[in-house]
Amino acid sequence: MNELAEKVKYWNPYLGGVLLGVLLFLSFFVTSHGLGASGGVNRLAVAVEDLVVPEHVDKTPYIAKMAGGDRDPLAHWLVWEVAGIMLGGFVSGLLRGRVKVQTYHGPQISSHTRWAYAFVGGALMGYGARLARGCTSGQALSGGAVLSVGSWVFMFAVFAGGYGLAWFVRRLWQPEA
Amino acid sequence: MNTRHLPEILGATVLLLASGALAFFGQPGLEQKWELLAPKYEPLLAERTVYIDPAELLHQMNDDYIHLVIYDVRPESDWNEFHLVDSERIAIENFAAQRDRLRLLPENAVVVVVSNDEILATRAWKYLMTVAKSNAYILEGGLNLWLNIYGVAEEEAGSHGKASLGKPDGTLRHPFKLALGDRHAAAQPDEHHLPHREYTAKVKLLKKIAKAGGCD
Amino acid sequence: MAPFDLVALFGNEGSYLIYLAIGFAFGFILESSGFGDSRLLAAQFYFRKLSVLKVMFTAIVVAMILIFWSTALGWLDYDEIWVKPTYLWPGIAGGLIMGMGFILGGYCPGTSLVSVATLKLDGLFFFLGHITGIIIFGETVEFISTFWNSGYLGFFTLPELFNLETGIVVFLVTCMALAMFAGFEWLHSKIYGNTK
Description:
Chain A is an all-alpha fold. Chain A has helices at about 15-30, 40-50, 55-60, 60-65, 75-95, 110-130, 135-145, 150-165. Chain B contains 7 helices and 5 strands. In chain B, strand 2, helix 4 and strand 3 form a beta-alpha-beta unit. At the A-C interface, helix 1, helix 2, helix 4, helix 5 and helix 6 of A face helix 1, helix 2, helix 3, strand 1 and helix 4 of C.
């Protein structure tokens, strides 16, 4: 499936934005936190590491803070939020018949090419999110809504990075000119 | 009129009005913030929960595990005459600038506000708690009481008589012969060589819930 | 006054359920908006589909207005909500890297979860890459430790930066977002004509 269907089955993005904004507000109101994603994945990764190489985890300060000794990296609200995100995404997809094994990719490339780039892009995202201490959910959305300078700067950097590289990798996404 | 975009234009108008109105309405200033916090904090003052005995402060000073911050809110002249070792002189107005530091204090932090009697320190404590909720206490009886207990005998240098505590007026009522600041022995009394003084321990350590926003 | 100490109110399990519910709503909204589809996300960077911009900035503006009205009315304690401390340089560097990761990988961490949940293989590879990137960071952060901690400005907010009242900043941010929507829509129609 390599055509972006022109029949819009998705919600109007402004509507999605309003709902997301209300959710973000409620999150701050009820829990004092904004939303988050990469932090939860971070902890999942650390939990796996803790299973495989626990002594190394204990000795590396960045990871030890989360999983050293007796600490359970999964006993953290972010992990539950991540689980919720996957559940919510699944249910939404299920209701609309969008749960299907397939690969989304631009019309000019193959699935396999897409997989490779997805992996590389994911790695950059994983690294960058730790470096920036947040991702688009945590830093941009949540930090942005409470007017944190670092978050707004981060957000513009993300768009700059994306737009800056976009033309050079247009073959990944754009139809043939 | 292109009605295709009507919902979007309506939405934009709502957002503009809501944000514009907010610009007029304003955010709570420090006084309003204190009013919101007062129900929780006034009882702490009324019931003396946050006033600690000089002996307890001395114990905190000698406890290596505690990260102790002592704010001395008295005028500079009083400070020069006498102040506690490792205390920091700060004017009440400057607490606002301490906000980030206070928010990032570790789990084992204890903040104590001292003045000559308790009057200025109590005002300062309210201000401090409005700026950043902290594990903060007030020295009971102020430095006048402290010096009554830990002051050195008459014959020694930097000596002074006992202050009267009956009518607290916020002044330092120990006539020092020399303004030695924190070089007086009473600035850092030796706990072990002093007679034991009974007190009700009130200092608690806050269990800090690891605060982290998404993705940390 | 909000926010609430969830663990005190509901216990550990209760509080986890609340986060699960929040995450559920988050994932549901993302998938419903099409953010489990990397082609839609990437299309933002070619001005072909503006959903990313619209969802993100609408969400930020709506949440911001709700939050600051709540603090203005004394319903929400601003000091208790978590404002991330600003580390300027790693924030910029990380942002640029993530931007590149976005256009190469087609997802961001949150949307990749939604993609994996709907069994998309590109989402899965992204997710595996994500984990790899995280591990690489954990192993190498000590070498860039100075940089990673540089540019620390504390809990620094836009009103403090511009020395403006919070309410004014909220209004200006709202105006900026609306201007961006108009601007990008104009760009879109210039490049692609009047198709949606």
